[in-house]
Amino acid sequence: MILGSINPAVLMAALMVAATPLLLAAIGELVVEKSGVLNLGVEGMMIMGAVTGFMIAVNTGSPLVGFVGAALGGMVLALLFAFLTQALMTNHVASGLALTLFGLGLSALLGQKYVGITPPRTPKLDLGPLSDIPFLGRALFSHDIVVYLTIALVAAVWWFLKYSRAGMILRAVGENHDAAHALGYHVKRVRVLAILFGGACAGLGGAYLSLIRVTQWTEGMTVGAGWIALALVVFASWRPWRAMAGAYLFGGIVVLQLNLQAAGVRIPVEYLSMSPYLITILVLVLISSGKARGSLNAPGSLNRPFHASS
Amino acid sequence: MRATLLRLEGLTKAYPGVVANDDVSFQIAEGQVHALLGENGAGKSTLVKMIYGLVQPDKGQMTLRGQPFAPSQPSEARRNGVAMVFQHFSLFDALDVAENVALGMENPPPLRDLAARIRSVSEEYGLPLDPSRLVGELSAGERQRVEIVRCLLQEPKLLIMDEPTSVLTPQEVEILFRTLRQLSAEGTAILYISHKLEEIRALCDEATILRGGKKVATCDPRQKSASELAELMVGQVLTPPEKPPRPMGDVVLQVENLSLRSNNPFGTSLKDISFSLRAGEVLGIAGVAGNGQDELLLMLSGELLAPSAQVTLKGLPVGHLGPNARRQIGLASAPEERLGHAAAPDMSLTENALLSGVARKGLARRGFIDWPGTERFAQEVITRFDVRTPGTHVLARALSGGNLQKFVIGREIELNPDVIVVNQPTWGVDASAAATIRQALLDLAGKGAGVVVISQDLDELLEVADSFAALNEGRLSRVRPAKGLTVEEIGLMMGGAGDMHVAHEASA
Fold this sequence. Notes:
Chain A has 310 residues and is an all-alpha fold. Chain A has 13 helices and no strands. Chain A starts with 7 loop residues before the first helix and ends in a 14-residue tail after the last helix. Chain B has 508 residues and is an alpha/beta fold. Chain B folds into two domains: 4-234, P-loop containing nucleotide triphosphate hydrolases (Rossmann fold); 251-338 and 417-507, 3-Layer(aba) Sandwich (Rossmann fold), CATH 3.40.50. Chain B has 17 helices and 23 strands. Chain B is globular, with a radius of gyration of 24 Å. The termini of chain B are far apart. The relative contact order of chain B is 0.10. Chains A and B meet through helix 7, helix 8 and helix 13 of A and helix 2 and helix 3 of B.
């Protein structure tokens, strides 16, 4: 039996690792979109995070400093996007696409000397006896700290959007920027802050890839993770916990297809590598066909340029 | 004499190319209901935005209870006891009532306490409201209550209301006036912006009239007749449109038992709509915004498709046909939203003329556009409807609301349709342009076309319509002759009770 060679606990553990970078980028983009901005530059910000985090971690020897640098790297690119879209009023879609292409190119340039180097190891978090629980210990309690912090971040974003006043203002700006402006809220300031948060999260997601998941730098190593993160936000209909469920589902499919390939299932490899993307398309179709539910939660001012005409 | 609350002295605000307010001075006493009267573009909105801190004046000053008052942002105005109920633009559909209220407050209490306070205030002032409902699901009247309650919770000294009754039924207006009188008796001053003269005469103690950014008079509206006020406001004498008697022809448009789901998640679905329209008839359809007007227009214009036999045009089943096919048969339409629906904002007037003219004017041959012909067509519309524009090359978005409205309605009328459907034909249009548009619709009916006018302006409907119906939650009331209908009867029809009322009369 081929499937018998796949250990469910290991599969579960790998799934969480595969899902974490997607979840980080998606939760950041979720906040950005909730403020009414569509930033298609997630892929570019992720790869910038991946390369800056890698470089800084290698040079300082500390993965932690690397992650901080990655967040800053993502934010710098996000700041460029914020400047273009909020100050110069450029088109969101075109700016986002340009950001992705720019990020891919710049990261390749910066990372030239780092190809083939191994970064400092990020230790697993020592959870003591928890890690010794059969099955669960291996599956859930033997990860690095970033995995757990990411889950905490999802909880924090959920709480922020649902219960805090700042979160309510952010949703209000995304829902109807004219009304928010009329009530005296600073639409652009809120959006710039949201964009920066999105950039930091995408940067962290990228660094997770280069420092923990793959543990090396290669050009274009995000291979579309940023796009999947964008799709996840829609998939989740802009709800944080659903974004997490989506990321884990997607991570699961990625890991499963790798395992199936390794187990020698007699299906061409290309079909298996296609499967996560096909399933994403399928889920998106299913979600948007339930018109009322999915689209109701979409921010009303998403991707509409804001001119303060007072 | 009551103490002065707010005094404005020489307020001036200029935008590139236009002076919105020129040396405006007046004062509001505590507890006074003060009307600010003027046409669209007279500078009312800019003036109140200065009081509310959204715009800073170039010159002049304000004093509030003797203290200099120059709010640099709305929160500062709110701290000083100035609150504002907006005409539109200030509610969030996807947020619930309590959240919407909290967003308009300086220091909102936790949402749970706020919900309790919303309940108590809304009961005290006779404005029932459920704090946990999503605003997107509320009717226009209820939405306005949200805004008013939001202001009342801050116990304002001055409440600014921007055209509050444009979305209300006559009965709801009565409730609103009762609330406002109660507030005024409690010492809250109200600055009431409107262009509806009868309302102002019924409610206000004093009126300031603006025209072209300048103050033309401050007077007691109860001492003036409505036509005197109108002359002050418009600066000229208006003639009501002529309505020559005309024979009714055959039925040109018929809708039978049509139910249709809205294409908008917050929209109103049409329920069992039936009516017929004869050649030469003007059918007025009243109703408060959000009761299915948009959907009715989309259904008639062909943007929302229906089962083919349930909509017939000149005897042909057309329910399944799109807008251009219907135009070719003879149905033209002009939706409410001018920019982005009736006209493409970033295209020139010539191009916009082509977009709907192509179906009936032969402006394209074998896929090639006849630009000189289109240009002539656009120029005809501009000349005949007195559209003020430097030329046909101007982008639609560069025209003022009234001019663009004249253009889009004129464009459809020039197609010589057998049926024309218009939604809010004179919304946001100044009085003389509105008169031109109404006259053009009546002239078209005089030439034997059927006309459907969907509008929230009852005076307009009573002026043009031969027969009358009202939309309420997607249902259309029975069509009745407009002659002899009273405003009270219309109010009941708009509230969905029109037929009950008739039944009551019949049984009596």
